[in-house]
Amino acid sequence: MSPDILRYAAFTDGSVGGNPAGVVLDAGGMVEAEMLAIAGAIGYSETAFAFPQEDGSLRLRFFSPLAEVAFCGHATIATAIAITESHGPGPLRFDSPAGLVEVATQRHDGELWATLTSPPASSRPATENELGETLDAFGWQRDVLDDRYPAHVGFAGNHHMIVGLRDRATLSDFDYDYDSLAASMSHHQWTTVHVFAARSGSEFDVRNAFPPGGVREDPATGAAAAAFGGYLRTIGSPVNLEVVLRQGQDMGSPSRLLVSIVPGSESVRVSGTARVISAGADDRVGGR
Description:
This protein is of the alpha+beta class and about 290 residues long. It folds into 2 domains: about 5-115, Diaminopimelate Epimerase, Chain A, domain 1 (Roll), CATH 3.10.310.10; about 120-265, Diaminopimelate Epimerase, Chain A, domain 1 (Roll). The protein contains 6 helices and 18 strands. It has an 18-stranded mixed beta sheet that branches. The longest helix has 15 residues, at about 75-85. It is globular and about 55 Å long. The protein starts with a strand and ends in a 12-residue tail after the last strand.
């Protein structure tokens, strides 16, 4: 019997945009090969598979078309919204390969919002070799970098290279040698390369390269957003901070992610909405 596959776009900007995710709410009994095949057939950057547990909780696994991913923010948001539409708002707890992920859902101004609390988020300065390989893949010189935001490798369930640019125009010209960056990311075990330009201290334009997922770019990346929150905390931004990330505009899929850094917690909260999409719609938004 074929599983019931739901399709949502998460981190939408109002009623448009967002990042497509597949959601299978009852994956009980499925094995890895089956999940990988379904993720490949759907073609989205990730599909979430939920395994109901005897205690009423859910275990989540995430698959790109190429491999399993330890944590995926936008697919977590999509799963939470799908559950909430059937059972109403409230707290949810997901057991993932990256650890426990708590999600709170609520209705605000007629929209369902989901807020995930990430695994512990942190970052460290990128090495000269890591930064050099990244710049070479994008064809950039060091003068494109924003000195206020040093390059780091962030973590919030997955590792992400984080690079700040001085000019939005450079971000608009985002392009890279796919094979070269994919090889570098595989070597360093990065999930995305998170490139951003600051609009202000609380609003950023971001783009994410995602070769490990088999796509050139992701239009909304919750896991990278959480890592970015940990990065801002590490480099000395205020600890009680909420920032807005604008992603996907350059792809024609505008997305909005709210990132909250909470005092006294190593985790980061990432909030967004989601909308149902039909089979065949919005497919392969981040295609290679």
